[in-house]
Amino acid sequence: MAVPDRTLRPTPGQTVGPFFAYGVEYDRMHQVVDPYAPGAVLLAGTVLDGAGAPVPDAFVEIFGADTDGRVPRARGAFRRDDHTFTGFGRAFTTDDGRFEFFTRNPGAAPGRAAFFAAIVYARGLPDRLHTRIYLPENAAALAADPLLSALAPGERATLVAERTAEGHLRHDIRLQGENETVFLAF
Amino acid sequence: MTAHAAVAPEKLLAAPDQASQREISAEIGELHAQLRRREQAGESIRPTVFDFPAYRSSILRHPTKNLRLVDPETVELFSPAFGQRDVAAIESDLTVQHAGQPLGERTIVSGRVTDSWGRPVANQLVEIWQANSAGRYIHQRDQHPAPLDPNFTGAGRAITDEAGEYTFVTIKPGPYPWKNHANAWRPAHIHFSVFGSSFTQRLVTQMYFPGDPLFALDPIFNTIWRPQDRDSLIGVYDHDLTSPEWATGYRFDIVVDGPDATWFEPENEGE
To answer: CATH number of the domain at A41-174, out of 2.60.130.10, 1.10.1090.10, 3.40.50.920, 2.130.10.10?
Structure first.
């Protein structure tokens, strides 16, 4: 089936500005799962600018499949009930530019590499930026991934999280400069 | 760890050079002219440009490489699911969140969220935040010496209905001074955050009010370089939405963008 022509002009995006905190904050927004729940992993990192300085007025959103690879369709990402997995979280950066999520390792779609879809917003960033945060395991799936396999090794490294000894995930996002994160358009 | 010590965020708000409005306006004009030339030369340029140095805080925060065009994977074609469970009806009325009535022009802002084929985006979340009628944000880092309103926070949420419609009741925000350059003022605006039917359609933008004299002077508004795209962010006064003896009405329709894949209902491969 062919996709028909678009009839409406998309509304352009704008920066979130400096004062988004009271507008988009909600209770336990960075706790996609309870931090003490079995299988909870910490996904943490720093948002950095082109001078390597932390960005303290940014926020990051993630949306990920459940461990079995299923995309969550349950409502309640805004009103956490501690048992429904919605896959969605939002984290503000701290004064040190650091963001943290408690979530589950996403499972992969069949034949694919596992990743979190992620979006970055910041004061000084004129529009939101899409990216991905891949799990570092399963080298074969990563090597076969249509996006990763088309990137230079240095670029590819900006999209793959690091697994810490504790089993957590560490992933920095660089808005600009050396090792600039690969950002996506669809 | 990073090589740089963290700086208190409010210290970052003032641009170091403090250019004049005349200089900033000239930069905006030159940037727009460059973008028009690049487009005429065959380059495809997105509606909001990331590299727009007249907006000073973007200088070190914009990506320098082109966005990588990619086919969305399954998870990106779904959106987090929200519903009435997530948002109470009262959260869409910003004038009833406190003991008393806020000061300023009571305003109804209503519109329809659709995709670029005109199909409604139903049951999705719309969040807004804004300054009060004096142009002051309740955020602790806002140092503008305009009064806070004890009866106005300036944050609201709504879930779109089956037709993609949302409605907020609020107070018209005032213009807001900032430190991008000397005597810099932002046109009055309401921040909007919208979830589409697909994560690829996620949109954060700002809605403006018609006839604002600050439009041409504002580097943020002008990061959208085509006039017709800027115009799409200006709410339309709607006398049918205006409520007698009570509130003025503005219509702000929102079109979320997405790749061709969003035309189809996504198939959940995990199921």
So the answer is: 2.60.130.10
